[in-house]
From TrEMBL:
Keyword tags: Hydrolase
Any one Gene Ontology molecular-function term assigned to this protein's record: hydrolase activity
InterPro entries linked to this entry: ATC_hydrolase-like (IPR026002)
Keyword Hydrolase: yes
A UniProt-annotated Pfam family: ATC_hydrolase
Domain of life: Bacteria
This protein's name: L-2-amino-thiazoline-4-carboxylic acid hydrolase
Organism the protein comes from: Beijerinckia indica subsp. indica (strain ATCC 9039 / DSM 1715 / NCIMB 8712)
Length: 169
């Protein structure tokens, strides 16, 4: 049997359905505020690891914003996001998200209040995992009611971390 690859949007839907049940269970024990805090931390940790793995797949490239932009088509699969690129280079990347099906999906699942935690919360952590010298500035999101998300990335003036094939000690 051949398995069909799952788009990132569908993966987030599967995760959200599980997280909704998990959050209800955790909240009954430790309270909603603590449960949400733990979920946020877990999601940021997962995103940072995903960013590092993505960077590791590009060992022969610089961990700059041109290499980072390789993730954009994955984020856009199945029309999940519609982007308008404003500017791009090795040390900067600016785009707006003008359509976000992730936000639509969280609303459909009754998780609109958690959409930013489950999705937008990942973005800066993914950057840190990919290259800690990349800084993301975002002042608004569709998830939080704006008409677009403004992503502005800058590569700080410092060399990216060295990558090796060795296992960490």
């Amino acid at each position: 049997m051949t398995l069909m690859p799952v788009t990132l949007l569908e993966r987030r839907r599967i995760e959200a359905e599980f997280i909704k049940s998990l959050l209800e269970t955790m909240a009954a024990t430790v309270g909603r505020e603590q449960a949400v805090a733990w979920l946020g931390e877990a999601i940021r940790t997962m995103a940072e690891r995903a960013g590092a793995a993505f960077a590791g797949q590009r060992k022969r490239e610089q961990a700059d914003l041109i290499a980072y932009a390789d993730i954009l088509p994955i984020w856009q699969e199945n029309d999940a996001l519609r982007l308008e690129i404003e500017d791009a280079g090795a040390d900067h990347l600016a785009f707006n998200v003008v359509t976000c099906r992730y936000a639509d999906m969280y609303r459909e699942l009754g998780l609109a209040d958690l959409g930013a935690l489950l999705s937008c919360n990942r973005d800066a952590a993914f950057c840190a995992g990919f290259n800690p010298a990349i800084i993301l500035t975002r002042t608004q999101t569709i998830m939080e009611g704006a008409d677009h998300c403004d992503f502005r990335y800058v590569l700080k003036d410092m060399p990216p971390p060295e990558r090796s094939d060795e296992e960490p000690a």
